[in-house]
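Q: My labmate handed me this sequence with no annotations at all. I'd like to see what the chain might look like in three dimensions before we decide whether it's worth expressing. Could you predict it?
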Amino acid sequence: MKKIVITEFMDESAVASLRASFNVVYDPKLVDDAARLMGEVADADAVIVRNRTQVRGELLAACAKATVIGRLGVGLDNIDVPACEARGMKVIPATGANALAVAEYVIGTAMVLLRGVYLSTDLVASGQWPRAALSNGREISGTCLGLIGFGGIGRLTARLAQGLGMTVIAHDPMLASDSPVWSETGVRCAALDQLIASADVISLHVPLTPGTANMLSAERIGQMKPGAVVINTSRGGIADEAAVAAALREGRLGGAAFDVFEPEPLAAGNPWEGCKNAILTPHVAGVTAESNVRVSTLIAAEVARILKA
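A: Here is what I predict for the chain of 309 residues:
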């Protein structure tokens, strides 16, 4: 039987479907045991990973037999795709399977940050009544959402936002200004600096590449509208986290929701410590009970198909 090594958590039903036809080594903690991981992948025909397993360098070299790498997610910055392809390996991301989870995260955190009233539980429970202080929250309807990156997740986010009455603009250098996608979605194509200056909520939806690193720089953060909100569910390193945190402390920005960081996990003394109006989550925007099933099922089916071909 061909061997599949799964290095991080995967839906159990998807794992069971693979076990029906393959020798499956599944350990959600395998990513943290480098020696065992190297040994297990040596005779594996396929390796399935999430974002923490770095399929490059020594680990990639150890994959002597593997013909396919399954990615339980969409970002590929933890996989040396050109090196995999040079070795004849197919890299399979779970494109689209977690898009709804990410889109809902963006809209949900935008609503929380714009309204600004949901962190008053302790005060109210203790008998305080900060009604006046919390009466200036903003409604999401009528605001402008700026999407940096307009792929599948960005387009789904735009549709949800439009349903709530938001105006949506987007910047994507991979899409021509006369692409039919703009008229089809009702989203206006905008230059990056124009988007930065006019959006009430800015959400990042681009991969981490040399061209997107520090795209949301300190200079661009300084050009954002007073009280604007920034959301990053893409990758750490695309936004200058220290500059975002400083803008929050100075009251120039209204809030930030970050699900991805550089590095992960955050180190002690990071710029976010004690930062108000920030929602920080541990790289889970695309992970829900439902999306885990969709992602795992898709990758299990694709990996099985390739191994059986």
